[in-house]
Amino acid sequence: MGAGSVVGAVLVIPWLRTRFSPNSVTLSANLLIVLAYALMALVRQPEAFFVVAALAGVGWTLSASELWVAAQRAMPGCARGRMNATVIMISQGTMALGGVIWGSAAAIAGASYTLLGAAVLFLASLLLAGRLSINTYSTDRMTLVSKDYEPTVASTKALPVSAAPTIPTAGILIPGQT
């Protein structure tokens, strides 16, 4: 998976982003993951399995990078750091929970049936999420697609520091240090 992720990040993502919308890239990447899950359940030769795992890595990297870019664009600049930290913490927690679920399913049903079940469930989730979109920008990535959006300037004055979202902090003063 690691080799596929690197190849996907270096060679495939830049090429796809210039030719397809974020929705198309994400859907294609997720379909590649569905295919990889199904093939992982069926392939028995180690060499073929490594190729399938590399395909899964390409799909994973493509999907994750497009979703991360969409999330970055949706976050307000003043809260981006805190929101990124929250997303990363939730992702880490769900990875641990997913490991327990995957491990339990594989122990009960076997690895092949678990992978086939994951492929079917993932495909079903893609069908259910078909109406959702992450296309917030056109292909040149600079103009908004939504024709209802009209940017307005409320004021040309800079906001005072007290108007920005803040986080209370505490510090410890150590005598003799500045």
Give a verbal description of the structure.
The protein is mainly alpha-helical and 178 residues long. The chain has one domain. The protein is built from five helices and no strands. Helix 1 packs across helix 3. The termini are far apart.
What topology does this entry show?
Elements: H1 2-19, H2 22-42, H3 46-74, H4 80-109, H5 111-128
Helix pairs in contact: 1-3, 2-3, 2-5, 4-5
Notable traits:
178 residues, mainly alpha, 0% strand
Helix-strand pattern: HHHHH
The biggest beta sheet is recorded as: none
Model regions low in confidence, pLDDT < 50 over at least 5 residues: 138-147
Overall radius of gyration: 22 Å
How many separate domains make up the residues? Answer: 1
Distance between the termini: 49 Å
Beta-strand percentage range: under 5%
Helix content: 55-70%
Overall 3D shape:
globular
| Contiguous helical run count | 5
Mean pLDDT over the full residue set: 80
Number of strands: 0
Class from secondary-structure proportions:
mainly alpha
Give a brief outline of the structure.
The protein has helices spanning about 1-20, 20-40, 45-75, 80-110, 110-130.
